[in-house]
Amino acid sequence: MQNCIIHGDIFYTPEKDRSVSAPDSSLVIENGKIKGCFREIPEEFSSFRLLDCSGRLVIPALYDLHVHASQYQFRGLWMDEELLSWLNEHTFPEEAKYKDIKYAQKAYSIFAEDLYRSATARACIFATIHKDSSILLCSMLDELSMPCFVGKVNMDRNSPSILVEDTDESINETLSYVNEVSERFTYVKPIITPRFIPSCSDRLSSALARIAEDENLPVQSHLSENLSEVDWVKELCPQSESYADAYRMLGFMGKQKTVMAHCVHSLGREEEILKNENIYIAHCPDSNTNLTSGIMPARYFLDNGYRIGLGSDVAGGVSLSIFRAITDAVKVSKLYCRLVDPSFRALSFNEAFYIATKLGGSFFGRTGSFEEGYEADVVVLDDSSVSSTVQDLSVAERLERYAYLESDKPVIHKIVGGKILF
Ligand code: GUN
Ligand code: FE
Prior knowledge:
By secondary structure, the protein is α/β, with parallel strands linked by helices. The chain folds into two domains: 4-60 and 369-420, Urease, subunit C, domain 1 (Roll), CATH 2.30.40.10; 62-364, Metal-dependent hydrolases (TIM Barrel). It has helices at 83-96, 101-117, 131-143, 167-184, 202-214, 227-236, 243-249, 271-276, 285-290, 298-303, 322-340, 349-361, 395-405, and strands at 4-15, 18-30, 33-38, 49-60, 62-68, 120-126, 149-151, 153-154, 189-190, 193-194, 219-223, 258-262, 280-283, 307-310, 378-381, 413-416, 419-420. It has a seven-stranded mixed β-sheet with strand order 3-2-1-4-15-16-17. Strands 5-6-7-9 form a four-stranded parallel β-sheet. It has a four-stranded parallel β-sheet with strand order 11-12-13-14. A hairpin with a 2-residue loop joins strand 1 and strand 2 (18-30). The longest helix has 19 residues, at 322-340. Residues 66, 68, 222, 261, 313, 316 line the site of fe (iii) ion.
């Protein structure tokens, strides 16, 4: 780990309603952690390596709390379906291809390279049910020093014959996956990944919850994304009071660090469980729009102290860019105020940026801010093609414009956990 100083136009959001702009300043990183932002570099750091990024934006890296690596190859296609038909007709047949390790090699290497070049420092990733290709994905991300959670997906019911596991096989393969990933890799860690309640029998879900607890592993899944899905879960778990309660009855929620994607239809049904059990909510606005799932009430969750982060949910979402998720979160929050509840205020750009950095980043530890002691996850952006020479834009305005206009552009430098990746 190299100590270093990055000089440029710095911006971060230590609180949801407070941002810090430090133009023409120096961010000091010591032993992988943020030391602080300084106008003049203090003498004690003068021997640190200097990355001179004058005129560039220097911001905390972004976090993707929900993405399917195995769906990257079909992003931008088949966007005219709702969730359940989209899964059956397109997603499951595509994921079945990852049984073939050669296909996985080609497809995952493209995903890993694009994630590496993006502004995302860390991600919670779904692979597929196939253990060997899931481990291959872990090895690629580990090689790139990307500290991600990667899950081998579990599915033993309501799934096509090309993409389904026997219950015992699913449990045993998960144990073997967890052992191998925990032993072999430095940056990549395993995460228990029941796809969603309709795909996992009660016996499988209970066994997975036990593995998560015994091995002290985090959990990721989907929750209350689509109303037909919510009704289906009620049929499958008639004793449960809600979808979240069904997970709870099976042994999930609360015991282990958990991230649930979507929660579009949680309000009035299950928000107490999300709050009381400190569940992370991965808000995936582009996916929710493409699959006509609905509008997630991000304002409610943000203002009431819930843990929320952003997710690309590729390929429900089309882009790996969390800048895109930031601007989409702002847009759909405006529609929520207009179409659902006028007493809500739309999210500001800074609030959505805070969700994408410090709030969502807390899933991975003390990350996502430039306060002293935070792990140094930093990206440097070249906004020269959109920073107007006619208007005099502030650092915050330049970042907002970059997010709207340059969301998919590779970053120019990326530092993760204090390590300079490029
Ligand atoms: N629910 C269960 N599986 C999936 C998936 O692959 N994508 C989304 N968006 N929702 C799901
Ligand atoms: Fe998803």
